[in-house]
Design goal:
about 45% helix; about 10% strand; 12 helices; alpha/beta; 6-stranded mixed sheet; Uracil-DNA Glycosylase, subunit E; binds uracil; globular
């Protein structure tokens, strides 16, 4: 972890403090707590409860920034509708990334995330990988799956010959505080952006990494251990069904190395299906 350099107008930081913070950062501490609890969920909720007229203004095409001065937001259904509107207006992945970065209505945005984390990989990839949400490393670098779990994912993709075949994103675009699982509401608000990314990349296959991604995309009650390895379809607003395979999350594999054989079998199934479908329209 690196500490951000001070802004030029800041007074010079106390070297003892910098050294102490570096010590804690090296020890893996990436969050500080005050003595009094802060209910960050409440801050997100307040954002969602601000006046609906603000949302109406955005729907009328007024800039989304109108939301920040009033600190405000709207109910989750309206936030999702606005997300859908803004996602649909994006005609390229760059426009979609910009729309996500400007989107103010996901409660995760006000819970300590440094920046939005959208995607990496080939913009016309035949395989789209959808994970749960950014963690600490992703929050710093602004790219998905760049921490320990991401490195394992990359090694597995390379071994399966899929490194150059993937576009990687998540169900939410801001780091949930303390790396908790994103809520269904947070995922629902981000879902129109995920769906638009799928339309723009137009992959042949989708891979859902981990239970939270599988639950959000498939809306199925089963756990990932029973969903994994079984192909099903995902159909977006464009009405185009795409084969989708849920698999295990690499963070889970780091904790349970014995499960790697299942994830490996899933990746081989993806590679085989891609090969089989190659050449078909
Ligand atoms: N875990 C995820 O699900 N996504 C990331 O981007 C990183 C870790």
């Amino acid at each position: 972890m690196s500490l951000s350099p001070p802004l030029s107008s800041d007074p010079a930081p106390d070297p003892a403090l910098v050294s102490l913070l570096a010590f804690w950062a090296d020890a893996g501490v990436d969050t500080t707590y005050s003595e009094q609890p802060i209910n960050r969920l409440e801050a997100g909720r307040r954002r969602l409860e601000a006046p609906a007229q603000v949302a109406a203004a955005v729907v009328r095409g007024e800039p989304a920034l109108v939301l920040s001065p009033v600190g405000g937001g709207v109910g989750p259904a309206t936030a999702t509708a606005i997300a859908r509107d803004q996602a649909r207006a994006a005609n390229t992945l760059d426009e979609l990334a910009a729309a996500i970065a400007a989107f103010e209505l996901c409660p995760l945005r006000s819970m300590g995330a440094r920046q939005s984390v959208f995607a990496r990989g080939r913009p016309d990839a035949p395989v789209m990988i959808i994970g749960e949400g950014p963690g600490a490393d992703e929050d710093v670098q602004g790219l998905p799956f760049v921490g320990k779990a991401g490195k394992l994912l990359d090694r597995m993709l390379a071994a399966a010959g899929l490194s150059e075949a993937v576009f990687i994103t998540n169900t939410v675009f801001w780091r949930p505080p303390g790396n908790r699982t994103p809520t269904a509401e947070e995922q629902a608000i981000c879902a129109p952006f995920v769906a638009r990314a799928i339309e723009l990349v137009d992959p042949r296959l989708l891979v859902l990494v981990g239970g939270a991604a599988a639950k959000s995309m498939l809306g199925r009650p089963e756990g990932i251990l029973s969903l994994r390895g079984r192909w099903t379809d995902w159909t977006g607003e464009d009405g185009h069904p795409r084969p989708v395979l849920p698999t295990l999350h690499p963070a889970f594999l780091l904790r349970q190395p014995a499960a790697k054989k299942h994830a490996w079998a899933d990746l081989l199934s993806v590679a085989a299906r891609l090969e089989r479908d190659r050449g078909s329209p």
